[in-house]
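Before anything else, study the sequence and fold tokens given here and see whether the fold suits the sequence. Record follows:
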Amino acid sequence: MKFDGRKTLRVRMDHKQAVNLMGSDGTWRRSCVLLDVSDSGAKIEVEGTLDVLQAKEFFMLLSSTGLAYRRCELVWIDGTMAGVHFITADRKKKNPANAQGAEARNSTQGK
């Protein structure tokens, strides 16, 4: 279901889904509750301080073992709520400026 004027389909959780956030280097971890999720991001409620979320990137651990996870970056914070964007491997392919820069680098390397 689309709501809040979102461009992508976002699923609102009916029950509290506990997940954890963890720093890319593994030095910090925060418990949180997944409120809604889409292909591109999620809305979470964070327990504890939010200062660690200022890191450029971090992981959302979707399982207790950490085997299921998503790489994230912070989009917004409002009180204990936060919005995150999922970082994907094909993210650079979607940015035309990066693609043109890569083409230029590749063409000069071949000469």
User: Anything to note?
Assistant: Residues 96-109 form the longest helix (14 residues).
